């Protein structure tokens, strides 16, 4: 490795993470490189998270949010508090390996690189990939690479990626803030897709480093859907329905809104049917209605992005196969319907993509 690593601020977002905060902090304090400061932005936790941070003394700075408005305001606060250009942002259920900053830092020298993502593996089974970034499907979803697949023996070389996952990112502080930071209206879910889209539309590059490994632990109670989960969370169905629609309306150009409409309608029907089969139809419908109060903000932000956009939707949106979690049990009929569904979405996109300039 050539040259020094850093300076970097490590900003940890926490909400009721006392059960794993100590492990997160131990790893952050042991990471190699010039770390100017480790800070924890606590989202009004009701457990003893704040006390655990205070016991660290001067080694860790505690920033307390007045209430829990989701991770987005806390991540933005971490960026604002940082005194360095580059900020390693992570959630408190993430454990860094000692060399992760060294691996990520090498990518910051690239032209117009703003976000660099490590490979996240399950802490319960480090041979299984959890998050590896992904691609942006035109219906408003992220097609996740290698989701819950066995990690390759050779991690592969770093490269550009269409979208990143916010649970751990090395971020160019000013570039992210200039783009508006994380949008608090999402609360959680799709907020990283939204940030990825806006950064890419502005001409920034996102990088993925498969050799930089972090361990990802329990996730968010009542929302995460992992191996061993008993059922599909109703809260996830609500946020999925609301946030996907909001993401599309606030970011897509007018031609992309029109071209993607047939596929989005089809996806909405299929996801609504899935939610109904899992007992969450009511949550899904409430999510669709909950986007209505967000419409004025979505239109304002859409106009603002259009004024600075340098990368068109034709280069951002894809029609790859959707990533459906292998955790969701599917019958043979449902598996066949899934294949037909992806084929139909690709066909609709081929029929309408010509509308994109």
Describe the structure.
This protein is an alpha/beta fold. It has two domains: 8-216, Spore Coat Polysaccharide Biosynthesis Protein SpsA, Chain A; 234-355, no CATH class. The protein has helices spanning 18-30, 49-54, 71-81, 100-105, 173-178, 191-201, 234-251, 254-277, 281-290, 295-308, 313-316, 332-352, and strands spanning 8-14, 35-42, 61-64, 86-91, 94-96, 113-122, 125-131, 134-137, 141-144, 159-160, 168-172, 205-216. Helix 2 links the parallel strand 2 and strand 3. The longest helix has 24 residues, at 254-277.
Rg over CA atoms, rounded to whole Å, is 20 Å
Biggest beta sheet attributes? 10 strands, mixed
- The CATH architecture name of the largest domain reads Alpha-Beta Complex
Helix proportion of residues, in percent?
Answer: 40-55%
Please, how many helices?
12
Tally the structural domains. Answer: 2
CATH class of the largest domain: Alpha Beta
Report the span from N to C terminus: 43 Å
Q: What is the mean predicted local confidence, pLDDT?
A: 93
Number of strands: 12
CATH domain topology of the largest domain = Spore Coat Polysaccharide Biosynthesis Protein SpsA, Chain A
Strand content: 15-25%
């Amino acid at each position: 490795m050539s040259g020094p690593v850093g300076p970097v601020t490590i900003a940890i977002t926490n909400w009721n993470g006392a059960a794993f905060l100590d492990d997160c902090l131990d790893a952050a304090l042991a990471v190699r490189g010039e770390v100017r400061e480790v800070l924890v932005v606590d989202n009004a936790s009701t457990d003893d998270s704040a006390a655990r941070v205070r016991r660290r003394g001067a080694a860790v700075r505690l920033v307390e949010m007045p209430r829990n408005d989701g991770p987005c305001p806390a991540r933005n606060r971490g960026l604002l508090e940082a005194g360095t250009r580059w900020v390693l942002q992570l959630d408190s259920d993430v454990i860094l390996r000692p060399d992760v900053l060294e691996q990520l830092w090498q990518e910051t020298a690239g032209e117009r690189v703003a976000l660099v993502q490590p490979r996240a593996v399950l802490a319960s089974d480090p041979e299984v990939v959890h998050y590896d970034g992904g691609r942006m499907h035109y219906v408003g979803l992220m097609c996740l690479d290698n989701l819950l697949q066995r990690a390759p023996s050779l991690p592969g070389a770093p490269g550009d990626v269409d979208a990143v996952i916010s649970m751990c990112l090395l971020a160019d502080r000013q570039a992210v803030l200039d783009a508006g930071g994380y949008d608090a209206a999402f609360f959680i879910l799709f907020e990283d897709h939204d940030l990825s889209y806006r950064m890419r539309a502005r001409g920034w590059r996102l990088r993925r480093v498969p050799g930089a490994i972090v361990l990802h632990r329990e996730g968010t109670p009542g929302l995460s859907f992992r191996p061993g989960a008993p059922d599909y969370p109703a809260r996830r169905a609500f946020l999925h329905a609301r946030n996907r629609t909001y993401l599309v309306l606030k970011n897509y150009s007018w031609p992309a809104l029109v071209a993607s409409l047939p596929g989005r309608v089809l996806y909405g029907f299929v996801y609504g049917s899935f939610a109904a089969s899992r007992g969450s139809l009511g949550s899904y419908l409430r999510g669709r209605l909950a986007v209505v109060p967000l419409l004025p903000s979505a239109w304002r932000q859409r106009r603002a992005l259009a004024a600075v956009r340098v990368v068109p939707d034709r280069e951002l949106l894809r029609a790859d196969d959707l990533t459906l979690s292998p955790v969701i049990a599917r019958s043979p009929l449902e598996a066949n319907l899934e294949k037909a569904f992806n084929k139909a979405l690709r066909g609709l996109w081929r029929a309408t993509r010509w509308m994109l300039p």
